Amino acid sequence: MTRGADVVPNELPDIAHPAWLAYLAMRNSKQAHFGFLETLDQKVQQGGVRTLAERARLDTLLAEHDRCVAEFAPEIKALGAQDADARNTLLRLMTAIEEAANEVAQ
User: Which helix (H) or strand (E) holds 2?
Assistant: First the structure.
């Protein structure tokens, strides 16, 4: 099952696909928000000032991330209620992705 570039891992049961896609959206929105925030922080550290447009974009990115979190939460909760093994598989994949990302960042 794919949606755009969002490939679902083969080991993930079909029932977990909606939660997986919600996780990817949440992760991407987090990266977009923090990436832009980091850019703005560098600008300020170099003596710059955030513009109103930059502040508005930051607010928009945060609102998008909040929306993605709000969509993910019921997906993972419903998955756990329907199939705990599928939820555990999803959590293992999420953990592996985050650990790999942390290793790369260091």
Answer: strand 2-3
Q: Is 7 helix (H, G, I), strand (E, B) or coil?
A: strand
User: In the numeric block, which tokens belong to residue 24?
Assistant: 């990817």
Q: For residue 75, which amino acid is it?
A: E
**Sequence-ordered list of residues with C-beta below 8 angstroms from that of 18, at least 6 positions apart, any chain:** 75, 79
Backbone angles phi, psi at 8, to 5 degrees: -90, 130
Q: What angle do CA 5, 80, 13 make, to 5 degrees?
A: 45
Q: Are 67 and 28 in contact, with CB atoms under 8 Å apart?
A: no
Q: Whole-model pTM?
A: 0.88
* 10-51 residue pLDDT tens: 999 999 999 999 999 999 999 999 999 999 999 999 999 999
Instruction: Please enumerate in sequence order all residues whose Cβ is within 8 A of that of 6, keeping only pairs 6 or more positions apart, or say none.
Output: 20, 21, 24
CB 19 within 8 A of CB 79: yes
pLDDT beyond 90 at 7 = no
